[in-house]
């Protein structure tokens, strides 16, 4: 069971990564990736492994020590469990980066490679996205929270308009 879950975890996430990287402007990509439920398959794998190994997982998470974590991760169950955890959270972070980059109008030829980097080294990919986001934000004429710019009356920072009743159009 452990090896099967390990073998399935990344392939379950690949279609979502492919949509974000290869078809970022397709309307269905936004609809599909817009749901946080895309991370459920690897999270289910993680949950199954944690439940099966709970007697070994609990001491590692409730009283963490380097020795205890090393011992657990040195087992097939430990490696598969952390792998499912990493895949789920990398996908969640990648999803946020994709949605954020689309909202900010960042070019897919720039964000695509950063998403690939996130698959491989998520913290480095997230750092790259945050840096790019900051640089792109400085060049953007759109008002950003905290930069002292105030949008014209009736315009929200995301570009929509607000009707007199306060509802967004």
Automatic annotation (TrEMBL):
<feature type="transmembrane region" description="Helical">
    <location>
        <begin position="6"/>
        <end position="26"/>
    </location>
</feature>
<feature type="transmembrane region" description="Helical">
    <location>
        <begin position="72"/>
        <end position="93"/>
    </location>
</feature>
<feature type="transmembrane region" description="Helical">
    <location>
        <begin position="33"/>
        <end position="52"/>
    </location>
</feature>
<keyword id="KW-0472">Membrane</keyword>
<keyword id="KW-0812">Transmembrane</keyword>
<dbReference type="InterPro" id="IPR025461">
    <property type="entry name" value="ABA4-like"/>
</dbReference>
<feature type="transmembrane region" description="Helical">
    <location>
        <begin position="114"/>
        <end position="132"/>
    </location>
</feature>
<feature type="compositionally biased region" description="Polar residues">
    <location>
        <begin position="158"/>
        <end position="169"/>
    </location>
</feature>
<feature type="region of interest" description="Disordered">
    <location>
        <begin position="140"/>
        <end position="169"/>
    </location>
</feature>
<keyword id="KW-1133">Transmembrane helix</keyword>
<protein>
    <recommendedName>
        <fullName>DUF4281 domain-containing protein</fullName>
    </recommendedName>
</protein>
<dbReference type="Pfam" id="PF14108">
    <property type="entry name" value="ABA4-like"/>
</dbReference>
């Amino acid at each position: 069971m452990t090896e099967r879950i390990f073998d399935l975890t990344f392939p379950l996430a690949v279609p979502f990564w492919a949509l974000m990287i290869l078809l970022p402007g397709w309307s269905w990509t936004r609809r599909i990736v817009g749901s946080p439920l895309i991370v459920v398959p690897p999270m289910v794998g993680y949950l199954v492994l944690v439940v099966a190994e709970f007697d070994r997982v609990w001491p590692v998470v409730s009283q963490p020590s380097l020795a205890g974590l090393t011992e657990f991760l040195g087992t097939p169950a430990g490696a598969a469990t952390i792998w499912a955890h990493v895949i789920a959270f990398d996908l969640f972070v990648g999803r946020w980066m994709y949605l954020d980059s689309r909202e900010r109008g960042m070019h897919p030829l720039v964000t695509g490679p950063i998403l690939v980097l996130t698959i491989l080294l998520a913290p480095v990919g997230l750092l790259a996205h945050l840096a790019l986001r900051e640089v792109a934000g400085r060049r953007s004429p759109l008002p950003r929270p905290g930069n002292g710019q105030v949008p014209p009356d009736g315009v929200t920072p995301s570009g929509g308009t607000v009707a007199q009743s306060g509802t967004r159009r």
